[in-house]
């Protein structure tokens, strides 16, 4: 190694060491002045900060085995890691500024990757398929889930901007790690607006007896930018925590001492580049709505939701969907059994689809959704949407969920 090169490397190492020392020193001083704390909670993750300034680091993973027996076709079985998420969120400025960042590195089907939609909508990045890119991507590639800031100066007003979950369906707003079954209902998935880029004005009114959200989004799903000449998606969601709180979490993992009852209603108007529910043409002006209710008490839980979508032009179509779940802890905070009934009723010739499921959940050491094993089995009627007889699927899934 030449003398000049050695000197350059040495100077670089010394500079990095000096900078690291200064950062460590300043961090210690800051910690002393602001009472910065470091805390790890099992099933929740790592917390750094104090009451007014906090950074929360969290990893989430679900390892899953799925067996599907299909009438008229060969059965399938597969191991997968459908969720492998890294999340950073927190708040600062006396809790008035909140933020969130989340990436998903899960395994997904290869060969179906779609480029992020460009502003010009070229063949290399077709906008209509942008939503597919979130669900199906070459194995190993990271997908951006969330990236937002949320300014909340008061309880009754907040402004969230960036990419985040559209405040619409209750089951979609509930984290995948806090589901009562291995995954969301097929019926709610059909009406799901997922994540999108935009803004959301939200808050809590009347002593937190009513929560509201008014949102404007691109309308084509996560990581999608091009709207051509179409208007933005616009909508609203209102919730009423009648008793206790209306939390975005399924199952009564805390064995609630008092009843928790809530109701939510939401509406959205959009002109998406995709074909919602498969039978509404692309770029069609349409409305979607949902009404949901949830109840928890002493290990018992119920969650129900009804959904609809209606096309306002091209074709006169109205699709309906519903999902209902009941769960009960045989051993409080440890062992739960649950049943689910869901369906999607289509207009026109599209075959209606239904889901009948039951499941068992084991929560390790009563740590809530943080560490749990799930087993569910379902009959999926007409799941392949064909008019041929005996096209039902019989699906069994086993999953381990971990938040760390």
Q: What would your notes on this structure say?
A:
The chain has 404 residues and is mostly beta strands. The protein has a single domain, classed as Porin (Beta Barrel). 11% of the residues lie in helices and 49% in strands. A 16-stranded antiparallel barrel has the order 3-4-5-6-7-8-9-10-11-12-13-14-15-16-17-18.
Keywords for this structure?
4 helices, 16-stranded antiparallel β-barrel, mainly beta, Porin, 18 strands, 404 residues, 49% strand
In short:
The protein is mainly beta and 404 residues long. It has helices spanning 3-34, 132-135, 170-173, 186-191; strands spanning 37-41, 45-49, 54-70, 76-92, 97-104, 143-154, 157-165, 195-205, 210-217, 233-243, 260-270, 286-297, 300-311, 318-331, 335-345, 353-363, 371-381, 393-403. It has a 16-stranded antiparallel barrel.
């Amino acid at each position: 190694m030449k003398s000049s090169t050695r000197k350059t490397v040495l100077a670089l190492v010394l500079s990095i060491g000096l900078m690291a020392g200064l950062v460590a020193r300043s961090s210690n001083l800051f910690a002393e002045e602001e009472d910065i704390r470091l805390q790890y909670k099992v099933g929740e993750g790592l917390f750094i900060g104090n009451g007014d300034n906090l950074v929360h680091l969290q990893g989430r993973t679900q390892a899953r085995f799925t067996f599907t027996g299909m009438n008229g076709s060969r059965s399938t079985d597969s191991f997968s890691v459908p969720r492998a998420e890294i999340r950073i969120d927190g708040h600062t400025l006396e809790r008035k500024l909140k933020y969130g960042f989340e990436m998903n590195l899960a395994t997904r089907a290869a060969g179906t990757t779609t480029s992020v939609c460009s502003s010009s909508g070229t063949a290399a990045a077709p906008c209509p398929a942008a939503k597919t890119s979130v669900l199906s991507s070459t194995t190993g590639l990271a997908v951006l889930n969330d990236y937002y800031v949320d300014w909340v100066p008061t309880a009754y007003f907040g402004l969230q901007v960036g990419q985040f979950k559209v405040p619409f369906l209750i089951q979609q707003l509930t984290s995948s790690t806090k589901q009562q079954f291995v995954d969301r209902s097929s019926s709610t998935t059909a009406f799901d607006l997922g994540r999108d880029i935009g803004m959301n004005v939200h808050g809590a009114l009347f002593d937190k007896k009513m929560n509201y959200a008014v949102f404007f989004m691109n309308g084509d799903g996560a990581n999608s930018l091009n709207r051509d000449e179409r208007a933005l998606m616009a909508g609203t969601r209102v919730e009423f925590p009648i008793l206790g709180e209306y939390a975005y979490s399924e199952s009564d993992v805390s064995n609630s001492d008092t009843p928790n009852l809530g109701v939510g209603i939401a509406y959205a108007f959009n002109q998406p580049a995709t074909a919602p529910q498969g039978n509404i043409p692309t770029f069609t002006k349409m409305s979607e709505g949902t009404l949901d209710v949830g109840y928890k008490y002493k290990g018992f839980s119920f969650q129900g939701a009804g959904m609809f979508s209606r096309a306002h032009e091209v074709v006169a179509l109205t699709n309906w969907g519903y999902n209902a779940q009941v769960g009960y802890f045989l051993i409080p905070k440890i062992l739960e059994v649950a049943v689910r009934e869901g369906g999607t009723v289509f207009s026109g010739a599209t075959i209606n689809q239904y889901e009948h499921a039951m499941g068992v959940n084991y929560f390790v050491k009563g740590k809530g959704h943080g560490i749990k094993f799930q087993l569910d089995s379902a009959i999926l009627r007409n799941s392949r949407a064909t008019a041929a007889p005996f096209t039902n699927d019989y699906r069994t899934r086993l999953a381990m969920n971990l938040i760390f």
